[in-house]
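Reopening this one. Same input as before:
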Amino acid sequence: MRRGLRGSDSSGSSGGTASSSEPQATVVSCADKGKDAEKGKVAKDKSGRPAATVKVRNRSGAADTYLVDMNFQGRDGLTLTSGRADVRVPAGKSRTVRVPLDDPSVVGTVVRCEVVSVL
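Same output, byte for byte:
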């Protein structure tokens, strides 16, 4: 059974009110122009596309596969692109997943990554 969640942003704050069995998502690293990006170390997914890293915690009693939806925002707060990725998480455990940008050409202008939902 899949459950929804309003996500957290790159600062690590959680949004919404979640029940104790809903998944919890935290942005570990954003695909932005931080100090690692300046050194050419932007996080990438397996295919080499720029990506954010998100930690998903399954707080239920059964393993589940979650779909993580994200928005990547610019300095003005507007969404530049989005992204999504699946992750299988055992009961009571956490896993990280790389969420690639749908439009990797905007990676240099991304300043905030926001988890929109985890279903």
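So the earlier flakiness isn't reproducible anymore. For the record, The chain has one helix and six strands.
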